[in-house]
Amino acid sequence: MIRFMMAVVAAIGFVASAPADDKKADPTGTWKWEVEFNGQKREQTLKLELKDDKLTGALLGRNNMETKISDATFKDGEVTFSVVRERNDMKITTKYTGKIEGDTLKGTTESERNGEKVKREFEAKREKK
């Protein structure tokens, strides 16, 4: 009987902690990180919002110009989405994949440049409100 009661208490504790874990992995917010292009560092800003299980957002570029994300998903703490930019009549698609742990979003970007796949790692921090 004691073992049964201990199992019930453990199960209740596990179930009670599950919503807290989901909340901790919420992607909603403004995320920032630095990238280096041609020897120059630039700050990247990503705005994400999860509402009714739908992930939306935008990546801010030069002059704070927003580019909406597409094909966005959020499942089990993992964020995936694409950003399509046009430059010189060419469309460039960058795919983002990252895992959220608290206020850190760590992942990779993948794009194609001159026929070669370019993969980079990033680590973004959620901006405090």
Read across the widest sheet, the strand sequence of neighbours is 1-2-3-4-5-6-7-8
Number of self-contained structural domains: 1
Q: Write the CATH fold name.
A: Lipocalin
**If you compute it from the alpha carbons, what radius of gyration comes out, rounded to the nearest whole angstrom?**
19 Å
Count the E strands: 8
Descriptive report:
This protein is of the alpha+beta class. The protein has a single domain, classed as Avidin-like (Lipocalin), CATH 2.40.128.30. The chain contains 1 helix and 8 strands. It has one helix at residues 2-24; strands spanning 29-37, 40-51, 54-60, 66-75, 78-87, 90-101, 104-113, 116-126. The protein has an 8-stranded antiparallel barrel with strand order 1-2-3-4-5-6-7-8.
Q: How is the secondary structure organized here?
A:
Elements: H1 2-24, E1 29-37, E2 40-51, E3 54-60, E4 66-75, E5 78-87, E6 90-101, E7 104-113, E8 116-126
Antiparallel strand pairs: 1-2, 1-8, 2-3, 3-4, 4-5, 5-6, 6-7, 7-8
In summary, what is this structure?
The chain is an alpha+beta fold and 129 residues long.
List key phrases describing it:
alpha+beta, Lipocalin, 8-stranded antiparallel barrel, globular
